[in-house]
Every structure is written in C-alpha cells, then in structure tokens.
Amino acid sequence: MDAPPIASLSALIGDPARALMLSALMDGRARTASELADRAGITRQTASAHLAKLTDGGLLSLERQGRHRYFQLRCEEVASVLESLMVLGHQLPRGGREPHSPERCARTCYDHLAGRLGVELLESLSERGHLETRTAQLSLSSSGEDLFERLGIDWRGLQCGRRNYARLCLDWSERRHHLAGALGAALLHHFLDSDWIRRQADSRAVVLTGKGRKALGHWFDLPL
C-alpha cells in the first residue's frame, strides 16, 4: 500500500533544518542557498541538498539569475499549510512561557499581513461591512469597493488573476483569521509602498510607522 501524500509532506517539513529554511521564506521574499544555510545554521552543501528535496517535493520554486539561485515558497497554498502547522505547534504543551515576539504584533505571512494587526484589520473590514463572508471565501461589498478605490487599489484587476481573490488564513499567534489572497496581498503592498509599515531585517516582523498609525486609524478605524 502506498503511503498517503501527508507522509511525504511531513517528511519534507519535519526535518529541523528544512523547517527553519521554510520559515525564513514565509515573508514571501526570495533567498539564496547561502542565506538559507545561514538561517538554518548548516553548511551550504547541506543546504543545497535540503533545498533540492524541497524543490522536487513541490514546496519551493527556483529562479536563476546569473550565477545565483533564488528560492521562494512555490505558492500561497504552501504558506497557508505552514501557517496552519504553526498554529498546531503553538497549541502543543511546552515547558516555560513563550517569550514575547514582535512577530505577534505584526508580521508578514507570505505576501499578506498577519499578527495582531492583520487580525484587527480583517475584523475592522468585516465589522464595517466592507467584506462579505461566504464560508471561507470573501468578497468586497459596495462600500468595500469604494474604500479600495479611494485607497487607489485596483480591486477589479485583482479579480482577473488566477490566484484566490480573498480568503481567510488562520493566524498562528492570534488563533483567529487574517485576510489572505490577492486582496490581502494588495493591502500589504499598499501599506509598504505608503510607508505605513516597514519590514524588519532578517525577520517576518513589520513595524507600524507614525504615519501608518494615523492612516490606519483614519481608513480602518483601528485604535492603534
């Protein structure tokens, strides 16, 4: 009897070094084998072997530019699976209290906003009637369409893409949902481009700027 797909997937993700490299790619950015080796605390040769397995297993995509090879999570669905596993991992018993992390306040989850800020953003959009919930699928209401137009986000164009337009993603730190899909990615990019939030080096954490605090309070009525 052949093993179910979950067996091969768990074998890929379960290795500590590979898990560290996958976690490092959860911010949606591409990284070289050398950078991922440093993140995992292993040699470049060992990292290359691990990355080959992750790529062959369909979890990573590889892009070559000159002499460099860049690795990314293959798609948003891979990030969603990893985020869900993190939720389960943080529910398991462990010794001592988990230290406070800036990632709990605000972070990227692949290409959308997560953490407390991401959860509160989704709640604000829902409570103000900008998002209509249809099971796990979401859609903009007429007021939501107007909001995105005033923000300068082409919500119509997002509907034409191949990826999921808008969906819920379970947040590992808040145990509630944040906004994912093309709509969530568009908001994250808008926040970054507008300097409302800033990425932190070598981390998924993002920091809210003074400008962003005012903007999110104005546009989304967030009590920051």
Give a structural overview.
This is DNA-binding transcriptional ArsR family regulator. InterPro entries: ArsR-like_HTH, HTH_ArsR_DNA-bd_dom, HTH_Metal-responsive_Reg, WH-like_DNA-bd_sf, WH_DNA-bd_sf. It is a single chain. It is built from 11 helices and 11 strands. The protein is α+β, with helices and mostly antiparallel strands. The strands form 5 sheets. A 3-stranded antiparallel beta sheet has the order 1-3-2. It has a two-stranded antiparallel ribbon with strand order 4-5. Strands 6-7 form a two-stranded antiparallel ribbon. Mean pLDDT is 88; it is low at 92-97. Helix 2 (16-24) packs across helix 3 (33-40) and helix 3 packs across helix 4 (44-56). The radius of gyration is 18 Å and the shape is globular. A hairpin with a 6-residue loop joins strand 8 and strand 9 (177-180). It folds into 2 domains: 5-74, Winged helix-like DNA-binding domain superfamily/Winged helix DNA-binding domain (Arc Repressor Mutant, subunit A); 79-220, no CATH class. 50% of the residues lie in helices and 19% in strands. The termini are far apart.
Amino- and carboxy-terminal Cα gap = 55 Å
Shape: globular
Across the major sheet, the strand order is 1-3-2
Specify the number of helices: 11
Major sheet details: 3 strands, antiparallel
Total separate domains:
2
Provide the gyration radius in Å. 18 Å
The mean pLDDT is: 88
Low-confidence stretches: 92-97
Beta-strand segment tally: 11
H/E element sequence? HHEHHEEHHEEHEEHHEEHEEH
User: Portion of residues in helices?
Assistant: 40-55%
Q: Per DSSP, what share of the residues sits in E-state strands of 2 or more residues?
A: 15-25%
Which structural class fits the helix and strand makeup? alpha+beta
